[in-house]
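Chapter summary example.
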Amino acid sequence: MHFKILEIDHVVIRCDDLDNMVNFYRTVLGCPIEKEQRDIGLVQMRAGRSLIDLLAVGASIDRPDSGQPSEGRNMDHLCVRVEPFDADALRAHLEKHGARIGEEARRYGAEGFGPSLYLFDPEGNMVELKGPPEA
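The structure predicted for these 135 residues follows.
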């Protein structure tokens, strides 16, 4: 399987104080709010063509093994846009290289909803491979 990384789609940062972080990224860095899902503790901020997702610690989509900002581990995952996105071929490629593969699902990214596949690098950092947006 050959695929090409096009760009960083989004980065997810866990935060102790979601409102303070939203205020910082909006007022200091000029990132407008793209999408809010306060019920699950998530605010997505537009950063050019990419997104910075701010995720409240303890949010319903937070994972218990993902660390805490106070431990210096506040990046949840890195998402890169790939082409082509063929989930079966990607999975086979990753398995061939011994990568630990996570969940495949339809997720929202910088270009809208589309397919994605989680995997973990050798140090346990989560990486999301994001496919094209839905038409």
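To summarize the output: The chain has a mean pLDDT of 87.
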